[in-house]
Amino acid sequence: MAKLFWVEDQSHWIDRFSAVLKQADLDGEPNHLEVYKFPEAAKQRIAVMTDQHKPDLALLDAHMNGSDQAGFSVSRALLKKWPDLPILYLSEHSGTEIEEQAITQNDAQDFIAKHQRNIEAVLCWRIKAALKKRQAQQLGEQAGLRSGSLEIHTDSWEVFWKGVKLMNPHNPKRPLAPTPRKILRFLVERSPRPLSTEQIADLLEADLERFSYANYRQHIKTLRSAFDAAEGHSGEFSELCQQGRGIVTFGDAHAYFWKSDS
Amino acid sequence: MAKLFWVEDQSHWIDRFSAVLKQADLDGEPNHLEVYKFPEAAKQRIAVMTDQHKPDLALLDAHMNGSDQAGFSVSRALLKKWPDLPILYLSEHSGTEIEEQAITQNDAQDFIAKHQRNIEAVLCWRIKAALKKRQAQQLGEQAGLRSGSLEIHTDSWEVFWKGVKLMNPHNPKRPLAPTPRKILRFLVERSPRPLSTEQIADLLEADLERFSYANYRQHIKTLRSAFDAAEGHSGEFSELCQQGRGIVTFGDAHAYFWKSDS
DNA sequence: TAAGCTGGTGAATAATCCGTGAGTTTTTAT
DNA sequence: ATAAAAACTCACGGATTATTCACCAGCTTA
User: pLDDT tens digits for A174-197?
Assistant: First the structure.
């Protein structure tokens, strides 16, 4: 559950974004949103918060109630307590001195203009990215991808399915071969968008002359049997695929995609 | 001197920003700007760059010459060589799928809309902030080296495995040779990320002309036998490696990585 | 109903990678 | 200057990985 700490003085923005923020898929669970309309109230709350209330991310308006510095004072209070808390600004004053101060002096993780097309989506993307970056830092640089029961360590390229490491189906003592690993990673990254043979070839930096659809299919086969092997050759994963989860074929575009099991 | 790597396919943007970027006060010194108009040219350049040319920051356009993926392929080439290089996108397509891909999948440090008020200043602020963050991160990374049963004294360069000092396998009275020691250190530092031949060559400040994969393998062999020797030539360490711990081959990209035994 | 397409499969082949030993060049120390 | 050490090259075999091929089943369309 992602905990968001949000300070915003104008009700219409709160109305507009709160539902979006609550329902955004940040970590696969519902989010907890704590909103304050006044900087003072926010600061009082911060003063009494303990580590168990520690938010994962703060969203601030810089200019509030006529004061340029209102948001920054909240930021300082937060950073004093949790120096590594990522802070995003959400403001109407992009391109102004306020943005400059936020970015260059107040350790803002990001500064998002309220007036831009598709703002709800942009907000979610950026929050998600900030949380991901934060998590990567905390895990000792062990960045990872996670989707349901699947976990990919993007540095060591180990893949875990329900906690079990995926191995090479032809030789269970060896790790999964490189190309299947890469393909799986791309599929999960782009999930739930399908990846065509062409796109995969591009991502693998392989020549389309060399990388054919037959080829792609073969690697998918390897992956599926690796999953099956991780479950003890029960064929459970293959079934899952046929039910439209896991590694699924797209229909008629030489494409596959990844669909989380949860 | 801040080194910026910039890929932008439209001349008018280059004309508009290059003077600004060159003169921006990023670190008190004049900046070095390397601009490419074509993604292919940029990628070729990246392939031949060594660590001494390593840019401090990359500025990319995502959508170039009609392809959505052009900028991302440059990003991948850069990150492959320097996984920690901050990458900023400068694009006309904010709020679109391109921004989403950049932020959520391509580890963009930032995504800046070209069309916004005061764009020159915003660009400079954000570049400056990204550089600052990068620097702060680098300073925080200096920690002692210890990984499972392995211990490296970074001052005296002695290496201990299970408390036993690693010696030169060809002549047990002599210490481990310098290059293997360095390689081991880099592997452990970057653990569990694999290091390709190219990356090792960069880290050793050796010419890629001189430092080949055969070479890398040779040093790995030396290291493995040094570990074995420290255990009394039992071959215990070699076994460990085959089980995916210790010094492990990555299976692809001519790379090895270090995986702690604990 | 047959032809055309997609997707799954097993086996065979081709390509690549990795470990190794022995030899050569370069660097370093005496 | 000389010898030892270190770094680097080269070539080979075995193993792993990637690709290709042939075939089948199911579905859609002519």
Answer: 899 999 999 999 999 888 889 999
Angstroms from B248 CA to nearest CA on chain A: 11
- State the pairing for strand pair B145-147/A195-196: unpaired
Distance B252 CA to C15 C1' (A): 13
**Nearest CB neighbour to B126, from listed A103, A119, A179:** A103
- Identify nearest nucleotide to residue B178 by CA to C1′ distance: D6
List Cβ<8 Å contacts ≥24 apart for A136-141: A137/A84
pLDDT of residue A139: 66
pTM of the model: 0.77
Question: What residues contact residue A92 under an 8 Å CB cut-off, 6+ apart?
Answer: A63, A113, A114, A115
CATH code for the structural domain at B145-259: 1.10.10.10
- Cβ contact A241 with chain C strand, < 7 A: yes
User: Which chain D nucleotides are covered by protein, judged by CB under 7 A?
Assistant: 5-11, 16-22
pLDDT of residue A180: 95
CATH number of the domain at A144-259, out of 1.10.10.10, 3.20.20.80, 3.40.50.720, 3.90.226.10? Answer: 1.10.10.10
Give the CA A215 to C1' C12 distance in Å.
15
**Owner of token pair 């036993």:** B164
B135 reaches A (C-beta below 8 A): no
- With contact defined as beta carbons under 8 Å apart, do A39 and A7 qualify? yes
- Report the residue from B95, B103, B105 with minimal CB separation from A116: B95
Distances (CA, A) of A47 to A50, A142, B110, B206: 8, 32, 31, 54
Taking the CA of residue B38 and the nearest CA in chain A, the distance in Å comes to 17
Residue A127, pLDDT score: 92
Q: When comparing pLDDT for B145 and B215, which is higher?
A: B215
Task: Residues B3-140: name the CATH superfamily.
Answer: Response regulator (3.40.50.2300)
